[in-house]
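Example 9 (inverse folding). The structure is encoded as follows.
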């Protein structure tokens, strides 16, 4: 169960760190790196709307991260949250990063995120399997 506890904590911190990067005061200075070829006026309506929209994504990541850390204190009863984080890493992570590459975003950065999401998926599945094995061992009669 320790593997799952630490998986919840590490993935929670990663989500909080990534979520914070989408908050407007951290996102605005790196906007032109985030969206190569940004062609709307800095400070204009499109610029502000994009920052506002991406803030929502950041808040989602912050909330998920907080819940994952909370789940680390109750790993046996929080396994469904691990499945949610894994599913989000598949869909909002790997599949979205592949879409971003196809749309022309920097390949290196997207491959790094694909590697991060793949690590979250694989280690999450291993942690869930280890916790399942640990539960079965404890439940088995002596």
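The amino acid assigned to each position is listed next.
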């Amino acid at each position: 169960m320790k593997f799952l506890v630490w998986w919840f904590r590490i993935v929670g911190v990663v989500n909080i760190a990534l979520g914070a990067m989408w908050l407007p005061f951290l996102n605005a200075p790196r906007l032109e790196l985030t969206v190569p070829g940004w062609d709307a006026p800095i400070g204009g309506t499109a610029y502000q709307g994009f920052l506002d929209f991406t803030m929502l994504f950041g808040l989602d990541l912050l909330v998920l991260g907080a819940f994952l850390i909370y789940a680390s204190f109750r790993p046996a009863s929080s396994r469904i949250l691990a499945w949610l984080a894994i599913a989000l890493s598949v869909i909002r992570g790997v599949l979205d990063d592949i879409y971003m590459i196809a749309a022309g975003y920097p390949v290196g950065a997207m491959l790094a995120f694909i590697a991060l999401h793949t690590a979250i998926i694989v280690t999450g599945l291993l942690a869930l399997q280890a916790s399942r094995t640990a539960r079965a061992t404890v439940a088995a009669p002596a």
